[in-house]
From TrEMBL:
Keywords linked to the UniProt accession: ATP-binding, Nucleotide-binding, Transport
Organism: Microvirga vignae
Domain called ABC transporter: residue spans: 4-235
Topology of this chain in the membrane: Peripheral membrane protein
Designated name of the protein: ABC transporter ATP-binding protein
InterPro entries documented for this protein: AAA+_ATPase, ABC_transporter-like_ATP-bd, ABC_transporter-like_CS, ABC_transpr_MalK-like, ABC_transpr_MalK/UgpC-like, Mo/tungstate-bd_C_term_dom, NA-bd_OB-fold, OB_MalK-like
Alphabetical list of Pfam families matching this protein: ABC_tran, OB_MalK
GO CC annotations on file: ATP-binding cassette (ABC) transporter complex, substrate-binding subunit-containing
Main location: membrane
PROSITE patterns: ABC_TRANSPORTER_1, ABC_TRANSPORTER_2
GO MF: ABC-type transporter activity; ATP binding; ATP hydrolysis activity
Amino acid sequence: MSAVSVRDVTVAFEAFRVFDGLSLDIEEGEFIVLLGPSGCGKSTLLNAIAGLLDVASGQIWIGGKNVTWEEPKDRGIAMVFQSYALYPRMSVRENMSFGLRMAKTPKPEIERRVNQAAELLQITHLLDRRPDQLSGGQRQRVAIGRALVRDAAVFLFDEPLSNLDAKLRNELRVEIKRLHARLGKTTMVYVTHDQIEAMTLADRIVVLKEQKVQQIGSPDEIYRRPANLFVAGFVGSPQMNFVKGRIEGSGAGPEFVSGKRRLSLAGYQFTDAPQPGREVVLGVRPEHLDILEAGTWPDFKVDIVEPMGADTVIWCSDGEGSIQVRTSGSKRTARGEALSVGVDPAQISLFAADSGDRL
Ligand code: ATP
């Protein structure tokens, strides 16, 4: 039985239809990230699961129950938003216990749950403060704590870290991952446009673009076998290199050709048999390129060197265009230097130039 089952769901804002029959099954204990650029429909999907908006057709099941027409409070979910939405005049303790007090939960039970959540989030020492006496990161911990006391089986997060600075975001990201591990069977559905959050937190990522699912898979699958050009470009930093070219057939097997650049595709696992002459885009991540004495693609020149500590990103170009190579941080090169690029054919992706789909 799935923890959350989205069945053939369509949401409509008047004439504008979002998700024409979207289906998604989320397993118990799974950490699912909904990833995509602004407007792709992440929040709409989360809100449909939460019951904050009605579906035009289809069903939402949570914990084996059809909750399509249930109120949010009756769905067995807890939600954490980007804006912490804490009550300013209440203490942290009162903020965290508010929902339970409204639900007339017995006092000792409230105390037990609040103390337990506070301990888990390391905010016990803040319980008597008001929100204005907290930092942004502490406020977001309280907001998570307020969700945690509900003892829900499913947690829904809508960009919970977007308002925090980079360092705090990294800290709380690890905290959320730890929380998920400690809670064991709690299912989490997490919305973000940040591909690093998605890669580091998710068991599975749902990549969305323009209200359509582009790919569902583990971070590894999404990174290594992107289903199309959009997914390939959206995930990974620095971005995947894209090289336009075509497939040429020969006795020795198919080859990728782009001007003077050539690459044997003998080892490439095509999902679709290649047709010679087909226009394609070759995708290769900067870390799958190498700088060699005599690489696959010679005649490059260094344009820009970006030292990043652990790595160095080298922007270089030949007569055909520019590519980025990610190499060791100790690599020393200078602008204008000549180099030769090694391509690992086992690590490339090929996409159809017209549809953008993986070949
Ligand atoms: P963001 O990261 O900017 O929050 P998102 O991926 O969460 O974006 P949604 O907020 O789910 O995107 O919006 C999906 C689409 O639905 C967008 O095109 C948006 O303009 C549209 N939309 C959302 N809410 C409404 C509404 N109440 N009325 C009309 N259209 C809406």
